[in-house]
Design brief:
The protein is mainly α. It has 2 helices and no strands. Helix 1 packs antiparallel against helix 2. The protein starts with 7 loop residues before the first helix and ends with a helix.
């Protein structure tokens, strides 16, 4: 099972924190802004992970449906081949009479 890793999200958070440290003492409002941006980044990452999981579930369902369709097609092909062989035997039997 593959997991999606968001490498840019922690890097973005680190850049935001470093920018705040380089700017000197940050005001309470600036810290609140950074916290808000960090919360937005976290929410975006969580939504992306949720969307990826939903896509994985849909792909798994599609794969299962494709396997079922393949199995049904194989069964139908086998039945058609058996019927064709039976008809050929009946035709040959009729021709020998």
């Amino acid at each position: 099972m593959k997991t999606i890793r968001f490498r840019s999200m922690p890097a973005l958070a680190l850049v935001l924190i470093a920018a705040g440290g380089l700017a000197g003492c940050a005001s309470t409002q600036e810290m609140d802004n950074l916290k808000s941006e960090l919360a937005t980044v976290k929410a975006t990452a969580e939504q992306a992970a949720s969307d990826a999981e939903a896509a994985r579930r849909e792909a798994e369902a599609a794969r299962a449906a494709a396997e079922a369709a393949t199995s049904a097609a194989n069964d139908a092909s086998a039945a058609a081949n058996a019927t064709e062989a039976k008809i050929d035997r009946m035709f040959k039997k009729a021709m020998y009479k």
